[in-house]
Each structure stands twice: as C-alpha cells, then as structure tokens.
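User: Teach me something about this protein's shape.
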Amino acid sequence: MEVKSVVLGVEGMTCNSCVQTIEQHVGRLNGIHSIKVSLEDKNAVIIYDSKLQTPATLQEAIYDMGFDATLADSNPQPLLLDTIFLTIPSQSSVTSKQICSVLLKSKGVVDVKMSSDQKTAVVTFVPSVVNGKQVMQMVPGVDLSISAPEVTPGTCESSSWSQASSLVLRLKVDGMTCHSCTSTIEGKIGKLQGIQRIKVSLDNQEAVVVYQPHLITAEEIKHQIEAAGFTASFKKQPKPLKLSAIDLERLRNTQTKGSETALKETSSMNDTKTVVLRIDGMHCNSCVLNIQSTVSALPSVTSIVVSLEKKSAIINYNPNLISIEVLKRAIEAVSPETFRVSLPEEYDRVALYPTLVSTLKSPHPALKDASQPLTQVVVINIEGMTCNSCVQSIEGVISQKAGVKSIRVSLTNHNGTIEYDPLQTCPEDLRSAVEDMGFDASLSAQPSPEVQLESHRTEPLSQVSPAHLVRQETKTVSKCYVQVTGMTCASCVANIERNLRREDGIHSILVALMAGKAEVRYNPAVIHPSAIAELIRELGFGATVMENYGEGDGILELVVRGMTCASCVHKIESTLMKTNGVLYCSVALATNKAHIKYDPEIIGPRDVIQVVKDLGFTTSLVKKDRSASHLDHKQEIRQWKRSFVVSLVFCIPVMGLMIYMMVMDSQLSDAHAHHNMSSEEMEALHSSMILEYQLLPGLSVMNFLSFLLCVPVQMFGGWHFYIQAYKAVKHKTANMDVLIVLATTIAFVYSLVVLLVAMAEKAKVNPVTFFDTPPMLFVFISLGRWLEHVAKGKTSEALARLISLQATEATIVTLGPDNVLLSEEQVDVELVQRGDIVKVIPGGKFPVDGRVIEGHSMVDESLITGEAMPVTKKPGNTVIAGSINQNGSLLISATHVGADTTLSQIVKLVEEAQTSKAPIQQFADKLSGYFVPCIVAVSVVTLFAWIIIGFVDFEIVEKYFLGYNKSISAAEVIIRFAFQASITVLCIACPCSLGLATPTAVMVGTGVGAQNGILIKGGEPLEMAHKVKVVVFDKTGTITHGTPEVTQVKFLVEGNQLPHNKMLAIVGTAESNSEHPLGAAITKYCKKELDTETLGTCTDFQVVPGCGISCKVTNIEQLLYRKNKMVEENNFKNVTLVKIEENMEESVQPALIIDAELPATRTSQKYSVLIGNREWMSRNGLVVKNEVDKAMMEHERRGRTAVLAAVDGVLCGLIAIADTVKPEAELAVYTLKSMGLEVVLMTGDNSKTARSIASQVGITKVFAEVLPSHKVAKVKQLQDEGKRVAMVGDGINDSPALAMANVGIAIGTGTDVAIEAADVVLIRDDLMDVVASIDLSRKTVKRIRINFVFALIYNLIGVPIAAGVFLPIGLVLQPWMGSAAMAASSVSVVLSSLLLKMYQKPSPEKLEFRARGQMRHKSPSEISVHIGIDETGTGSPKLSLMDRIINYSRASINSLFSDKRSVNSVVLSEPDKHSLLVGDFGEDDDTAL
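Assistant: First, the predicted structure itself:
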C-alpha cells in the first residue's frame, strides 16, 4: 500500500492536446492517482500505487503513445498518506460494501477498511490529490461525516474502536545470526505504513511491534518478516496500548484534521497547561528518548522535556484533549513498561495552571502544531566554506535531497538552517551529506524558539532550565575510546555506527574493525563513556572503555632547513605554540629537527608544515624506516660466518697434524708397551721424524705449528664464546658457551704449560698436547650458530615484506562544487589526514583505509581477505590500505590513517605473533646446563683423587704414567698424572658432539627436504612438527586452486538452433574483453574446448559491476570453419589409415559436420550477447525458467557461481564456475588423519561454500567466515585446548595465523610474505608435501635422538674410564685416546645424521593403494560448521536414544561379519549417525561438457 511519486521526462510534445492525451490515457491506468504533464518543463509528475505500477511500466505506456519518455529520477519518492474516519448513516440506502467500492475507485483513495459493526470507515488517501471534504462527498446520496462515537474510557476491549487503537505484537523470529539481521528486519518492517515502532532482539530471538490495526494486520507483519528470509510465529496475541479508546480517537482526529478545521481549534489550543511529573525507573538516555518520542507524538502534547538527573518530565499539554491520569498511563505504557509516574508533593495542589502562550510564536499555533510532525528545523555548523560558491554548492546539493523543504546557508555565521521532513530524513543524514561534500559539519545544539519558550514557562516550577542544559552542550565535546569485541564483519561496524549516531549527546563515532576499537565524540553533559559502552553492549557486542588511551595526540618529526640562529628557533616555536591545536613544540638548531605534538581533531600535519613554510623555512618529514631493518639478523649472520671461516682456515691443518700425531702416538705406545725399544731408540725415532724434530729442547716442530694455529682460533674464533660465557657466569648460569670456553681454555693453557715445562726441562721426548681441541670445537659450534641465525633472519623478513606493501605516497585532491577537481598534489603517506580526499588511479595502491565517494572500479583485496575474486567498489563502499585498484579511477575519503589502517594492524599482528612465541630451548642447551657443572666437578674430583692416590701408592702412577722419567721428582710426576687425568675427563666430555647432534641432523634434514620441495627453517619447526596434533587448512589457494574454472556448461537450446561450438565461440569472444576472473575463466575454457588461441571480434562492450556484460560479437564464422576443417582432415586421415590396413578399394567420403559452412557462403553475422546473473537477465527482459533457476540454485548450494548466457535475446547456456579442489587434497587429508592428526578447514568464505569443499575432501570440522585477526584467535583457541597446531596457508591474510601456529606451513605459489612468515614452505603447490613435511620432521627428530645417544654414550662410558675408575683392571685412557673418543663421537654423530640422506618421501601411488576404498565424500550431516569466532558448531542434530541404539547395533553386526577392520567396522568409533535419517550425499553427477 505504498504510494510513490515519479517524474518522467517526455520528449515530442508539441501542443496542449498532446498534454491532454497523455493525461487522459495514463490517468485511466489501474493504480494511477494523479498525473500532471507540463509542456514547458517537458515532463510528467505521476502519483501511483507501487504495487500496481512501476516507473518502467509508466515509461512504456507513454512510449506506446509515440512520445519518448526518460526516467528523470531513478528513486521514486514515497508520499505521506493521511487517514480519515467516516461515520456511515444508519438509514443509508447504500451498503457499506458499495461505499467501499465507490471510494476505492476514486482517484487519491488508497485503502478503505470497515469497523466490525459496519458503521465506520477508515479511509487512507493521498492528501496532495484529494482532501477530507472531497472524500466525504465522493459517495452520491450518502451523507458521510467525520466524527467519533461516544465511548467511555476503559471500554477499549469491548468497543469496535479497539480496531483503531495501537496494538502491541510480540513475534518469535528464527534464523537471525548477527546484528545485520536485526537491522534488516527493523529497517524493512519500520518502513511499512501503520508501523509505529519495532524493536528486534537477537538474544531473545523476538520482535516487538507497535502498529495500527486499521492500517496493517498482524498477519501482514508476519508475512513481511518471512519475506525477508526469516521464520516468524506469534508469541502473544496483539494487545492494545494502555490508553483509552476515546483518547486515541481524539488524538487521531487531531492528527488527521486538515487545515480546514485548524482555525476552530485555535481557541482551545490557547488553553494549554504545564505539569511536572516524577518518573522513577529511568536508567539511561535511551529511556529519556523513548518517553519523549512516545509522548510528544500525542498531538494534545505541545512539548515535553525529560530530565534523567531530576527524574522528572515537564509536559505542556491541552487539558481539553487529555487528562493528567491519561498522560501518566501513557508514560507507564512506554516500553519496557517499568516506569512509575507520580506527581511531586510540592506540586500536588498547584499541579496545573494556564501557561502564557506567546503570540509571537505563531498567529495560529494550531496550524503550526498540525503541521509540526511534517516539518522540523535543524541548524548545522559548517566549517571550511571560503566563498559564496561554497554556499551555493551546499544549498544546491542539499536542497535536492529527499525530505528537504528549504535550506539557508550563512557564510558569516558558518552554519546552515535546514527545514526538513523528519519522516524522510534526519539531522545526522543531512550533516553527513554536507560532510561528504568536503566540509566539516557538526550538529548545532542552539535551542529552537520553542525550547526557549518552554524553559521560560517552566522556570517557576523547576530551577533547572532545559535551555541551560542545551547551551552547555555546545561548549564541551569530549572524546573517548571503547574496546569493542565480537565484531565479525563490516555490517557489525555499520550497525554500531548507525545506532549510536541516533543517541542523544553523541556527535560522531568511528569504528575500526581490525583494531576492535571505537572512537566516540560526545557531550559529557548528556552522556558519559560508561553509558556509551552500555549502548554498544545492548547491541550484542562486548564493550569496555579504554582508560587513559593516549592516542589522542599526534606526533610529528620535521626536518627544518634554513635556520641560522636561536632567534629562528624561537620564531618557529612561538608561532607554532600560538597555533590552535598545537600542544607542544621543540626545535633543535644543531640537528635541524622539530618535534611537535598536536591534536589531530583540530589541526593536521600538513597544516603544521604550512605554518613553518609561511615563516620562510623549508621543511620535510623525517623519513621513517619502512624496511624493518631492525628485525633482520644480518649482524649476527656476519659475525658467526666470520667466526666459522677463521676457525675453519686454522682447523684444516690442525686436523692433518692431529691424525698424524694419533698414528705416531699409537706406534710409540705399542713399542713402549712391548718393551721392544729402549729409551735411546725412542729418542732416536723421535728425532728422525720431521715433525718431531726439536727446534729448541722440548719444543718440536709439530707442537710449535699446533700452537701457532691454535692461538688465532682461541683469540678470534672464540671471542664471542668468551663474551657469552662471561655473561652466563656473571648471571650464575652455565650454558654450552661456558663448557666450550672451559674445555678449550684448559686444553690450551694445559698444553702451553706442559710445553713450557718440557722446554724448561729440555726434555728429549716431546710432550702430548691438546692444541687440536679449540679449532675443532669452534668450527662445529660456529657453523651451527651461523646456520641458526640465517634461518632466524628469514622469519623477520616477513615483516619487512608486509611493511613494503604500504604505499609511500598519496595523491590528495581538492574538490569544488559538484565534485569538480580543482587541484591535486602528491604528498607523503604520513601526511594524509582523516577526511582528506585521495585519488587512486588504476594499478595504484590505496594509501589509507577510506570510503569511496566517486568512481567505479574492481579492487584486488586478496591481501586482506585472501579471496582471489576482485571486489566491485562504488560510492559508499569501504577500501583497505595496501589493496590494489584494478581498472577505474576512484576518489576516496580517508577514514583510518597511519597506525590505524588495516594493513598496519596486520603488521602488528604478525609482529606480536612472532614475538609472543617463546623459542624452544634446544635439548643440548638444557643438558649442558647440568652437564657442565657435573663434568667440571668430576674433573676436579679426578685431579684431587689422583694426587691423594699418588702420594699414598706411587707405584700405580709410576706404572701407568706414559713417558715417566726418573730424573723428575715423584711429586711432580703425581701432579702431572693427576692433571692429565682431569684434562682427559674434560676432553672426552667436551660437548662437541652435543653441539653437532642437532645442527647436523637439521642440516641434512633441511637439505633432504629442499631436494623434495620442502623448505624447513631451522631446527625449531622440525622439532615442533612431530608434536603437532591438529592441522588447520586455509581454503582458497590451499585446498582449492585459488583461480576460478568452468566446471560445467549446460546448453539450454537444441544443437540445430544454435550449435554448441558456435555458442562457445560467441560466449568466449564476448568475455575476452572482460577483466573479471569469471570472464577470464570462461574465455580460457572456450579456447581450450575450441582448441584455438584466437577468437572473434567484440564491439560495444559494456560491463555493469555485480550484474554482467553486454556486447556485440562478429567474425566467428572463420573460427568455426577452421575448427570444422581440422575435424574433417582428422576424419579423412583416420579413414585413409583404415583403408590401407584393410586393403579397401572403394573411396571413402570424409564425415561431414553439421556446422561446417564455407566462409564465403555467408557474410559475417553480428550477435547480440548478454552474460550475467539472474538480475541482469531480468533487467534485459529475459525470463529465467524454473528448471534453470533450480539448476542455478543447486550449483550455488555447492559453492559455485552460476552464470547465464543469452544470444540474440534467447537464453542459450548456463555456465557453472567454481574454485575447484586440488586433485590430491582428499588423499592428503585422509593420510593426515591416518597419521593420527585432526584436520580442520578454516576460511573467510561463506558456510555454504565451506561445507561443500569440506565434504569433497573428507574434512568434518569447519570454521567459516573467519577474519584474518580471528584466524589467529582460532589457532590460539586450539592451542589453549592443549593441542599443538600446524597451519597450512598461502595468502598474506594467513601470515598472523601462520606465525601464531606452532608450525606455519606455506604453499610456495602463495605470496612472498606468507612464505617468509611460515616455518615450513612447500615449493611445489602440492598438498602431499604437507604429509611429507610432517613425516620428514618425525624422521629427523628420531635421528636427533639417536645422535644424542651417540654423543652421550662416549661421555657416560668414557668419563669414568678417563677418570681412572677402571685403572685397577688395566683400563686406562691417555689424553690422545680422549681426543680420539671425542673425534669418534663427532664422526659417529655426523655419519648418523648423513643416514637421513636416504629419506624417501611417501609416494602418492603407495598411499592411494593403501587408502583404496576407504576414502569417501562426507555427507553434510557429518560436517560441523562453526561461523565466525563462535564456539558452537551448527553440526549434527541430536539423535534420539532409539536412533543411537539402531546405529550401534548395526555397527556391531557389521563388525561380526567382517574379518578385517573394514570401513563399516570403523563405525564403532565414529558412527555415521545420520545414514538412516539423511540420504547419502553422493558425488557430483554433473558432466562437464
């Protein structure tokens, strides 16, 4: 029952007879209330019923008469309707049905409803077409009069007038999932005629509606909710509001009486009274607004001011129309019906008194009051106007807006006064419309004349003046920040912003989704931050006020050139400090830098720079380091590489010397043991060898060379170890560095001391030294450290990549009237201020988050959303910093700049995820923590034990001390033997092999991984991957290919009408001009099917974003002819081959193709092509049949995009396009499950698509519609359950989740950033490598453990032997044996690690063979889908006890009859709970043509 007005441009009228013809012809059409045609303006204004006519049908009607009609206004304006109550005379000769039909046939009458006693008619009419008097005279011979029957108060229920009063209806609404659902219902139902108020609660799943039953029925309301896609049922039968029928009737008559009765009421309206009522039970500002809006809607009330602080209401009313008791009941009836109303004691006796009504207010106050609901005035403060053209531009644009009656803009007062219709627009809309033009606009809180008058009247009653409150409001505007949780998408943001802007006292609100933060500017006199947080909580979100949130101040670092002395500094500082909005300024002459703090609400960085420039100095921003160089490990990498190279250079010769020394020592010891050689012979042998040649007595060539090679390593190679060991000891801890330093230092010092002693004694036999130990140790350790830092450096490069995505410059434009471009300038991205208009050209990056104000384009947002499809952007849409504009130029208004942009938030997320993960301490480091002190203790004990034993029983020492010389005293021999034993302990226990155990296995493991296409970054991910219990897969680009492909083509016309090849050629050619991924997929498919690289010619190409394309296609005959020629030739060749084989003599004709036509026989034909969705087809007048629509819906249910194609006005094809699942995905998921891992699918896509993909690959747990920031929360949630999580992803939006997961696995074809943020990178785009990476990790960790056994076994057995525990049984170790054991442990560890080179990754063929018959698609009932960040899955319904018994018994019987654990017997652990209830999901039985 909605009546609208539309303006159509009419061309071709020549005289007044044309005008009359159009008016008569169109006026006769059904549903037309009025038509006025203007010959001068060349247009027609038509008032019509929107249920019976549309602008298109009216256009067609005029067009059929031979005139050209164009739609001047694309949005027809809804008209306000009026209602009149008519009494039918009891002695009337005409029945009420006849009266109804006569009225309904009359122009201007929209609806007629009769009361139950058939005595009263409620007539709804269009006041601009017909008035009340004319309606009364429409039925000839019947005297209809406007009146109300006498009904005593309180008899509302029994009276026929219960129909006319307002009713409250409670409905249960199912199917609502988020706040955008509640907004949809409130928006749709609230617009219906007869609906006074509606409140929808998501928590209670109900809607409360106050409506007028004479205008709309409860059934209609329910039907409208169901039409919006929800299921509705009545909770309670409608009940009337608690006002008596007579009051309502009086109110209604007052509302509907036109100007003809206004003068009669003037005298009665002069007799107004004021009352003060006490109201208990108000909690917040929304209670105040509810009471004010409900009571002020009663025409008998001229004004109402409610005070929350005073708990009172000052009401100005007409006592002739309403009583105080009724007013009290009216307030008590306001939702939530918990208010208690009473008269204050001091006003009991003088509650009412006549109010002075100023004659200045209006000569006819009644007239004013009658029209008041239809016109209100608002004053908007406008900053930024410079000249009269700004004034004209604002007046021109705003006056065109729906509902604006008049506008006056004052340049001097910086404001605009707007008269508007509150039913069609609101002050906030008008303010934002002015803001959208590039001016700063705020709502003025100056009291209107009426408000001032009220305060004047009420002064004697109450000391608080409302005008005083209002004036106070303009003085202070405060700002607060609220942390908001539970937001999942942009509709949540819009919902919060829309609802809070309506609240009294809130000037503006800006919500950032990624930061989860709302910035609110409010009036502290009206509302406070905790109340704002409460309002957000009422909308269903979590909200807490952020105390002391110091982001209010902006900080600016500038380089200022041209300063010469201190006076320049003073000049800049004093000028800036005088500038409004600058809070602090400090300028340093020495560094030429200025540090400025400012309030971004008042002034921006460009304004500050301009102030400095105006003083005559040149200034520029201090460039921020965008490379995140502080996060790379380049310095450490260089340091360890240098350490390794130095050690290696000196180690190689030492190794050679050591091997030689070991061989020689063994020969000597053998000779000594068998006593075959005297001391003289031994000395002769020593001196005969070159290396044993003594340069000085006691100093051999070998020892001298070893010493020279060892010193540089000890000094330079070991420098960092000494520093770290010193720091560790200082903090009373012992790590591997301490043991390394201890072993190398003691070995070096001992060798040096022994050498010096030998030289002092002029020994003939050269002493045994340990100069070989330090170089070997340092080589292995520094190599391990170097490799470790290289891997660490890689992870931090991710942040550098992310930061480099940010645009460095922005093009800021200045717009004139009608968005005319006045100027543009390139500025640094840090200088973009909120509210700036930024221009982004095709191919450019968006520098900041913003809202599109002009232009249409496709934008690649895969950066944030991870979805491959570009998104259409038109005015009003939001854009994200870092995303790439594809084809059209856009103007955007900046909403979030600097650190608030979504990209900055993602950088912060990755940074936090990387820093919050504590690195796992290597097993070796932990071990050496206990190992070092123990070995040192054992060494010390050994030293003292042998000293004691030596002095007690010298013979033992004498027997086993190699090279014992009688010339040396016994005490010296004992000390040297004890020292040798303790050194041997330190040497054999040297953690060299411990240091090698992990790095060598990691090196080989990562090397083998790289050969197999798996890059593993260091030991930590390798170690962690084998502990993983849950594998989380991203959908787009991971489980699926990430690019759309044609999966099915359904031909809707017979082949003889339009051959299939021809249709493919036409459609492929049409889409070849499209840049949309869907278009590219269609063209690719057509080229493949036709086996060609070139297609026909496409002209008149037009694209409508979100709908489809239209174009003309020519030159496809040549293409088809070539195709057919090739088929013919192939057929001929095949036939010839057969003929040769079978020796056939008769000639064979080549098979002819129906489509084959010579190009010469026909001139090139032109085809008109339409490709797009249902809406595009219906817009172009094509009807989509039911079976086609069903086929489309089936494809959409399976997560595909269905596209229709029409050639020359005939629907000829349905093309299904989808992001297809990778072929190996199902096997990979099955194998991971068989390895004992839980597999989860996580995607930002909708639940329908996610469920479809999951069923195809066999995943039963799905998280759908998850934002990047929430992906991190989901991973954290799984980790909090005590599970180790591996995340497999590809896009930048996965980076935070990859960094947060215990192991991040990135698909190699994904973006650089994800690859850098991940711990494991799969070079090949193959999901089987996920299986291989976890398998390799398990094998490597197993190898590391074996290495530790090798490393420790030498220590556990060697240390006691070295300490001389087994000396009594003749088992003794010399220092060289200790060195050999140490070397052997190192060699065995390296050899053990090298065995990993034999690793073969699991082959898909073997796995497929093993999984044969056990993989199957999951049915929808088996898949549990969790939406957003919620906990509960919309999974399987609960089964009854009987169903469960049947299932389990069936499973038991199956297991009895099967000899193996077949797939049926697996049911025991995971029964297919719904196979009895739901049909098998089955595979796709579609055939792609």
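Now, about its shape. The mean pLDDT is 75. Residues 1087 and 1093 are 6 Å apart (CA to CA). If you'd like, I can walk through any region in more detail.
User: That's plenty for now, thanks!
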